[in-house]
Records
---
Amino acid sequence: MAGRSLKTEAVVLRSMRYGEADRILHLYTADRGRVGAIAKGVRRARSRYGGRLEPFFRLRMELHEGRGELLTVTGAHTVDGHPRLRSDARALDAAARACDAVGRLFETSEPHPAVFNLLCRKLALLETQSGSLGRSSSARRGALAFRLKLMLAAGLAPQLAACASCGEREHLGGFSGAAGGVVCGACEGSSFPFGSEAYGFMTEALGRPLSEAPDASEPALGQVERAISETLEHHAHVRLMPAVGRLG
Ligand SMILES: [Zn+2]
């Protein structure tokens, strides 16, 4: 075959049926960012890929790069299939939202190994939390901590140390997505109220490992989610799904 081959680890973000027996995959790779690939013949009963070209699988892949936009899958070996995650509706939903956020925020083939590692850690964490994610607030805390770390990797972390408009360090009671961070009383124009609990969640979530997402009340988490959404809409023109679904 003409073209060249690429070996990389990848997480399957999406997997769609295509034609009689093929699948189109959206992959987030360690070496090539987000890429699209076609896997031929995978839906035949005797496919050598088995069921591993499914969302949330972490794979060691061989891909062939020809002239087309899609790479062709020529090999796939499971690194982690996250089997427990698949049996828990809440973990599955959280994994889908995490993959969706990565795919939207990092949609080019520019490599971001830190983002790949972060996604792998998130999926591994959901695997261990399967069956015990409990109320939706723990899923929401985890999802928001993950999004904040993605923003950091994208160079879009909210400014929290001083007013994002004027640099004032006191009276930071609002958040402005347009300004990209907290704002003081004099700069409140386009902001919404942002309490100390939400502020504490953001600073701690950015500084701690993903597995230690801080605690916060639902109203504070609501402010954090709004701050993240408005910042990303303004500065990345990306609209994410709600951090958690309606599983109760
Ligand atoms: Zn200000």
---
Amino acid sequence: MGSFCIAPFGLWSRIEPMKIRRVVAPFLSMAFATFVGSAADMRPNILFIMSDDHAAHAISAYGSRVNQTPNIDRLAREGVRFNNCFAANSICSPSRATILTGKYSHLNGVPTFNRFDGSQWTVAKALQAAGYHTGMLGKWHLGSDPTGFDEWTILPGQGAYHDPAFLDRNGRRVVRGYVTDIITDLAIDFLKNRPADKPFFLMCHHKAPHRSWEPDEKHRTAFAGKHIPEPTTLRDDYTGRTDAIRECTQTVFKDLTRRDLKLQPPPELTGPARDKWLNEKPTEVEVRVESKSQKLSGDALNAWKYQRYMQDYLACIQSVDDNVGRLLDFLDSRGLAKNTIVIYTSDQGFFLGDHGLYDKRFMYEESIKMPFLVRWPGTIKPGIEENRLAINPDFAPTFLEIAGQAAPVGVQGRSLVPLLKGEGTPDWRTSFYYRYYHDPGDHNTRAHYGVRTSTQKLIYFWKKNQWEMYDLTNDPQELRNIYGDAAQGAAVEKLKTELYRLKKELRDDDQYAIEQPPAGVDGQPAPRK
Ligand SMILES: [Ca+2]
């Protein structure tokens, strides 16, 4: 399909968003047929950079206490920082499926780590049909081949940090180097070789900083001796909380393995014996301090484990930050920055020792909060903050509106374009629904659903029939479960009403409450066509 021109983008930006949907979108198909082959399409490009498990509180623009991310910060300085953007199901594959479809897990069919049905509607297909040149590079983690992309090169499953294999339409190839650098190289190649007469939509998905947190040598060395401040809730004793947090195996002190801690197995161990050694969770560790061997256990070992975990996690992020800088520089050097919307996000948040945990899954703030930074020169005022509630089902309708397209029936999110433009939205959501299914999953994390408003949170662990409630204004760290407080009776009832209203409105009929679909995104990639 050739290029087309309907109106210069200046006109798009002057038309009210709803009018674009009602008036202009139906006109698009007509215009598309009429003007095929005419002047260049000036709709903005979309560069969507998403990392994996990068918590907002490991970005200095979000006030990180543990690292500095000058390149990612540039997007906050030159664009908008969303302070309340959340994943609706805080694990990798479900977040990705939701971003592509604008739908919750129970409707897009990916509640856990199961294969995505690529025959369904996705925003990539819609943008491709609307004349965008579409690309997907990096971590995909949805089992099936990408659909709706003119170009795709993906990591199989989780992918590898060093000398990773990639899959594309031609099969599998190994690329020498470090994964974050390579994905950025692929993105730069995509930008260099794209058709000049079309706007582009590029999903650049980093693997980092996902477990097993393997930095490149440069950043590993830079962080090796660094002391990382501990979070205040690292030694949370879970008083007043339900069983779920006590039962999970995602704690820094008890559950990091020798592999996670990068301990070296004895040289005589090989094969399964070596793997067994690496997968054990050590209660005593021998380290070298100033060339002397020292045995660590108890509190000293706990503190050491936190440092080891965070040093590698943050070193992986530093490479992501460098590479975001490379991409922004490339846009500048090619004169692309002005008409390219750049988004930086992560598929969900991560516990950085908060509540003593690593990983995500739980509906607590550190896990569900996504960094969401957007630069759109000429439209977004530089350096602003946005506090309205955004969720990852909103991303697809946002991309569509940017491209002048209406969201189809069934998309559950709302376009964030009015928020990006700083417009008032009197009917914006005041709460959102969350649901996590993967139980027992990789970390024995109990399934739950819940509702979060701007000031409160209610969580229901349905397999345990246990509840938690938090006052986010007076207890932002979520240390005091007030569900059972007599004084909260009316507030609990109000939140429950809202929870079940949302559940019904979103057509969550407990489709995956008991049985989860079989795993299908890790290990061997899906058979090639
Ligand atoms: Ca993830």
---
Amino acid sequence: MSLEREVELEYRPRLLGALQDKVNAVADSLRDQTPACSRCGQPMKRHDTETVSWIARFGRLHASVTRYRCPECKDERRPLLDYPGVEPGRISGSLARLLALLAVVAPYTLAAQLAWLLLGVKINPMSVWKVVQRLGEPAARYSEGMSQYHADSRSEGASTREAPPAVVVSVDGSMLGMQVRQQRRRRTGAEPLPPLPPVEEGQFQEVKTGVLLLPGERVEISPGRHSVVRRFLVSCLGNAADIFRHLYAQLRELGWVGPHTVVVIVGDGAEWIWNRVSMFVRRCEILDFWHALEHAWGVARLLYGEQSRQADRWVHGIAADLRAGKVLEVIARLQRMRPRTPELREKLQGLIAYYSEHAGRMRYDEYLRLGYGIGSGAVESAHKQVVHARFRQAGMRWSEAGARRLLALRLLLLNDNWALPDRLPMVSVA
Ligand SMILES: [Zn+2]
């Protein structure tokens, strides 16, 4: 066995002992303090004292916890358990945050396994799930609260004195498989859970993700490959209005939109994006370049066959012209084509309609010159990182609340804001 492991095993009981001493000291200091009722302010009455135990990182802690009650309001408090890091429940607040962190990265069963391997804590997946609910709920409320705050025109955003000349906002969406039943399946004894019924049509809900970045901070890490110094992710399980409300709040929180800032919006053809962007007065709308080409590929394959060199050349010709800002020439050329089959005619008409509708968002030469970029690659990779990597693994099904809470926590980690859960009190959830 390695020395490190040896020391860890040797000191673990001592760490537990030291932690238990601290808990005892807190319990002693609270012994003679009668808490006031949070509703009426009157001193509460000692109700009873019971021995409570909970799991911490180094093992199980015990304490006799006094419960106080307000005779008027029937409110109850157990001051020792309100103490930071203790909190009611079977897992210490500090361990709960570590477990939540594991669950933000890995599925619940794997997170429980990691807890054992990394922390030496034996825990079942259900307990990890519970911790995420109790910590995810305040995280979700926090982000919702921030969005509501900024939605009020009277509330103050961060200073915009250093607002950039342009900020890029790209948005994307994808579907999550939702649970068919409202109730969670209950395990009886050691029996395995019955399999879930297959997901039916309509039992999906869209998760929308937005990425905020400053074009000035984009650096070319190798020819043609770009990376950004900073990016902020915003994600929600909701409609178009919700994601734009969250994006707007995040922009105000960052102080990124000043009176002269151009908000550059990059998106695919999805209407919900373009219907909302008018909220930004100074804006530049860009149709994602790769989506524009994807549509051209649809025609090229019908015209020249799969994987033909001609199809390749044809699409590259269109790409070069689009990059040069010649979208109207491209449309005119497409209109001069004489399709031989009804299928091709239909596809071609579709492409012409798509380019005509978005022509004003396809001035790629200008966007490149201004340094705005022309693709939504940043949001697609971010979206995969936020959603696919954790929420769309084989057979995963989510409850609305479960997905919302885990999403809120995952965003905190990906936005490098994991310190926040330390400041959020855990809540009890049904
Ligand atoms: Zn009271």
---
Amino acid sequence: MSQMTSSPSSPAASPRILIVGNAGQLGRELESIFAGGGPIIAVDRESVDLADADQTRALVRRAAPDLILNAAAYTAVDRAESESELAYAINAHAPRILAEEALKRDALLVHYSTDYVFDGGKPEPWVETDSPNPLNVYGASKLAGEQAVEKMGGKFLIFRTSWVYGPHGNNFLLTMLRLGRERDRLSIVDDQVGAPTTSIELARATHQIVTGIHAGRFGAPSEWAGLYHMTCGGSVSWCGFAQAIFTRAAELMGGKIPQVTPIPTSEYPTPARRPLNSVLSNDRLLSRFGIQLPTWEIALDEVVQSLQKRAQE
Ligand SMILES: NC(=O)c1ccc[n+]([C@@H]2O[C@H](COP(=O)([O-])OP(=O)(O)OC[C@H]3O[C@@H](n4cnc5c(N)ncnc54)[C@H](OP(=O)(O)O)[C@@H]3O)[C@@H](O)[C@H]2O)c1
């Protein structure tokens, strides 16, 4: 468990915050943006194993939070096909326990889910009322987590997002930069389309919404609790995303840009099937909270610039 930090101002009004999974891409950004807004207890896998129900329950009781931000998840999409039990323990059972403990304390639980709850077969962006039909174990386990949190009720927010990346962690952007340095040619899937979304923008939007709720701007929980899609704007294929990365980040790859060949999913078989169209509509988020994340291109610019700055230091 990392250190507990206290805000110097109006401690009575500041919620006690528990951040679960603070070593992950999103958890790291959440810890940074919520810092100073109240006492924070932030935990990683080393201090609490979410696959252990007793540890998870004890964590919440010990932390006694007013706000739980659950950024932890089993995110290894392909490995989940052969580790289904573990994926369900972390992505479905642990969120149920967090929701149960949150309800007992009247705390707000913020939980994250995925575009992979959908089968990708709809040509338009998916809305929250569309029927999920996951193609893989990861998506099914995340859907079970959503359903457990919704069933528990109380003060909860579920943000479904997609193609998460940022300046840290395991993600497509950093993989492309590494491959771009190592290879002259790359073949990249061009028929899966989604909205790349940065961990930074997710943390910002979460912070804005939670702060608004805390300030009473969105009314009673019955008016705002629920499921929302939350992604950057626009859409692109993995191949298009890679090309956008390469054109912006040549200097991070020693000045060279690899030649990219678009390929269909059928030429890049993986253990887990993935949806072809996983673009999510963010209309509900905008109409309820007045929040719209920037386009994926603008968000990408910010991350590339921060990596360039880091490389120069
Ligand atoms: N990444 C994506 O492309 C993507 C897309 C759509 C939705 N999402 C959702 O967005 C949220 C944030 O994802 P992310 O990209 O930030 O994930 P991430 O970088 O993989 O971070 C997840 C964190 O959860 C931790 N964790 C895994 N198993 C655990 C366990 N048994 N006990 C405690 N902690 C455990 C991981 O620890 P270790 O590092 O030690 O494994 C890691 O720090 C998740 O709900 C995810 O499902 C992600």
